Amino acid sequence: MDAKGYGALRPYVVPVTLEELTGPTEGVIVLPRHLDWGPERRYHLDQISDARLLYMRVIRESATPEDLRRFLNASLLRKLWPELVLPPRVRALWLDRFPELQRQAA
After folding, report:
1. pLDDT digits 0-9 by tens, 64-103
2. Is the pTM for the entire model greater than 0.70?
3. Which one of 1, 14, 74, 102 has the minimum C-beta count within 10 Å?
4. How far is CA 50 from CA 11, 41, 58, 66, 96, in A?
5. In the chain, how many domains are there?
């Protein structure tokens, strides 16, 4: 299967509400292997580049809403959203449910 086919079929998780995203906003986060299989899975939330990478990875790789709730925070997501590089289908799924993210980015 080509990459386009995989992206079209891969299931992505979107929370029901942004308010349920109550993850941390500071400190060091170590992602579990099912979200990040790289050698360095530590992210410093006080470093914007690390925070962006963590949010992109969690949004792309989460298979359950629990992962989203555990690692994402609604306030930080709103701040980072305009800078997140996400697959078009993932971005569309999130914006369909949360159009305010697009308005905030504008």
Report:
1. 999 999 999 999 999 999 999 999 999 999 999 999 998 7
2. yes
3. 1
4. 25, 10, 12, 21, 26
5. 1
